[in-house]
Amino acid sequence: MHIKFLLLAASALSLVLKTADAATTFLPDWQNADLEFKRDEPLCSTAVDQNGKLIYHKADGCPMPKVFDEYCAHDDRYISECYCPAIYQYICVSPYRGDERVKDKGYASCDGKYIACCDGSCPSGTSKSNPGGCGGSTSNGCGDTCYYPYQPCCYPASDETGCSCGTYTCGDGCGGYRTCCDSCPEPDPEPSYPSSSSNSSNSSNSSNSSNSSNSSNSSNSSNSSNSSNSSNSSNSSNSSNSSNSSNSSNSSNSCVSGGSSSCTGQTSKCGSNQTQKSSCKDCSGTTHYTCVDKEDPCASVTCPTAVSCGSEGCKTTSSKTDCCASVCTACNPKTCKVRTCTHSSKPSGSNWVCNSCTGQRSDCSTYSGWNCYQSCTINMGCDKYGYSCRFTSNCDTNYRYTCTNTYGNCHTETKSVCCPRAM
Description:
disordered N terminus; mainly beta
């Protein structure tokens, strides 16, 4: 009886040893062992984790950009679950959208999650519709072209050349400036002479004097966040039976499905003074929100500079937008009363009296000059003939004379005199 028991025990021990040897051919390191590998597809297709979820599925690989953690140890045609790398963690909410410019290995998104979000709205006062004209454009946070409102195209006038009397700055017709030719000074006015009269019956003669005055006047005016998370867990259990034995390994992620260990942000939803940029889920399943404070939509807008126009009136006005009022940006060319200086430079010679002068052209530009006149000592040499003689060249007597008057403005007047007697 004892001998029979010993034989049965020895047989059982031999069977256990053989079973152990068979089981080692299915360990994960079979590829490095000098043992013949035998696939056991049922072990891979039916392996489940502690939650009863299948661990492996039959596939050649994962669709990009997804990845997997391991092959099944019993059949390398089976791989673990495909999942998105942790770098894809943002769900973008309007007006934000996934930034297609930020990519990893050629991919910007995975299962609706993005590496970064960008603001797809256009700045205030612009739109994605091109109105034409020459209003210009800018870009939004996603790199889209945003167009300013329609503005008519304007072609400025070119600078004037060949100016012989100087230049000045004038309008180019499009709100800018150009170089214009200065007008040449007007010629000196003709001098005025005193009038003379004669009367054979008058006994006296008088002279006139002149006075000049000058006046002048002038008027001119992703986010890219990269994180990685991987979790593997394995569970193996061995059991022995007289007819069969097997080893199996189970793995499970430490994060909930769709969770990320690098997920950050506030757990409360964005407030009324905030805009939600994105959201993500951490490993425990809690949703986090990335919020940004609402900004003044007009803070980054530069409005056109207003100009103040006088009586000439406004020529060009800007368009009214949500951030900017309609203002005058350019004035009509000014039209002013012309004021002329008698001389552009002081005359040479004696007896000249000059005062500085500021001339004004019709476009309100000004120039410097002089108002000058001559001042001489008055010498009325013909006065002595005024009592009894006649101022004429037709004399019927032998008493013919010539006399000269010199006036205060240095003008001289020579006369012929006929007298009845010697003077």
